[in-house]
Amino acid sequence: MATQATAQRRFSFLQIAITLQTLTIFLQAVSAGLLLTSSYGETLHGVGARVMYGASMLYVLAAVLAWKPGGGSPRPVWHASGFLVLASVQVVLGIAHIPSVHLPLGVLMFGLSVLALARR
Description:
mainly alpha
């Protein structure tokens, strides 16, 4: 019984981490629009990038915690690690001001995050 409750808690933590990641990526799209139309958009987008990166790291942590103790499939860890790699590339592209790749990658990340959320 205790093991099932622990597994349920881990599942919930993983679900929360994916939801948070998806939400922060969506908010980055909103702040990107503000970046084009307001003076505070750049600040918001910069802060949002840090929060989104943190959410991606949290997703990796949640995936490892859900996998390791229970001995389940490592697939969520690979997915979360892939998101962290994409987030890292996204940050580098944003700092380098390469919107021709930065924007489509953001859309791809949002779509993949929604897909990961739907699978949970």
